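Aim 2 progress update. The chain analyzed this quarter is reproduced below.
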Amino acid sequence: MSQMITVLYDCRSKQEYIYRTNKIREIAGGSALLANVYNLFIEKCMENNIKIDSNWKEKKFSMHEFENSSFDGIVVYEGGGNLYVIFKYKEIYLEANKIFSKMLLKDTYSISVIASCVETTDNFNADKKKLYEMNRYQKNLGINSIPCNSLPFTQLDKNTWMPVVKKESKSGNINMLSYESQKKLEAYKKYCSVDEVNQSENLDSLVWEKGEESLLAVIYIDGNAMGAKIKNLTKEINDYNKCVDKYREFSCSTDKIYVKEPIKAIENFLGEKRKISMEREFKKKDKDKNYKIKTQLNKYRKIISGGDEITLICNARDAKDIVIEYFNSLSKHEGHASCAGVAIFHSHDPFSEIYKIAEACCEQGKEKTRFSGSKDNYIDFHYCHSGITNDLEKIRENQEKDLTLRPYKLEDFKKFCDYGNSISEIGRQNIKTLRDSYFEGESHFQFEIERIISRYPNGKFKKLCEDFRDTKEFGKLIYDVSLVYDLWFANEEELDEAN
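Predicted structure tokens:
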């Protein structure tokens, strides 16, 4: 068995590869390329007479069976951007790497993959430990270079600084493409089919009313403590067959629990919501024959979905419901938790910058979970009012310090939504006045509370004020509600008046 080679392939700088453009199709195509890069590698190997058994999702692993088979290599499992393979001989591994390198340059241009290998022993965990140590060493010391340097007279892509290889005329505009951009767009056409019933190809069709309200939301959701879960999978088990089966089962169940089931739940929920929205649209049409019915309501655009991670774009009004529906699905599986970040933005804002805000919101929640063993679900949101000039941490420090309760634990976020619905009783103007009075000081804030209670003496707002003994905490709640009031809590009459 010592002649066999256990190999770990790891895609480096995945987020940087995907998001170094602001064009949604290139982002989706780049994500699709990363998701399919190992399948492409195996196909290329097969074309060059290196037979790799890639049927890892549907059968148990047997080292003895592999040794006596006609395969040159076998996929142990794939997950988290990694591919785990066993080759029968080192010479086969080296030849496969040559094929992989050529394929990466030709079909992706700049995806960077690290390959680490050790001689296969009878101890799975010992081999895995050596592999990950070698992987860390290469990540820290390896050079991540762009394949092609440009000459002084070469026209460059302004975002990636790669040479422009093609110009396209589209809708009167000249679109300049680098080789990487071409490959991402080809991948988009090949892999990113859009379900027209639930998804929208055009982001402009997701907005409530172009020219009046163009607010969208990026939702980024990522599983908690997946590294620790993987580490504990094979604790006190060293046998290759048993350990590999554990990893295969984990990889398949993770994709099902964190992606497939939640996406299905979200689509079912939005479908029901769409029926209600369309009924309301036709009623408006009955009252006003000139009213133009909005046919794209309650749809979304999936950007990334795989492993334990989801990134999607939706109308900002749907973001709250989509996040809650995701966690309703996840809660059916005990012991699984995620954090969600929501960035609300105008449709013309640069997507890659907005994504960073959503990812940072998710990270704010993850920081909280680390104190509780990563067992809690957290949700954070941020309204990008104007140009993105700082990261989220600086924005919070400079603009929202001591003003917000975010991030919210899932249970508290649901309470926040209930509070928002209760507060809606007093209307938009009172909520914004109450928020402004909180900025001016506690006495101003208390005065406004009393004024509003005098106008709604028997309502939900008075009960809410009685429940909050801490004035500062109540003020922070009011601030958070005011940010998203028009999107998540305003009633239909207020929305119609606003539009």
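The chain has a mean pLDDT of 88. The CA atoms of residues 465 and 474 lie 8 Å apart. These observations will guide the mutagenesis experiments scheduled for the next reporting period.
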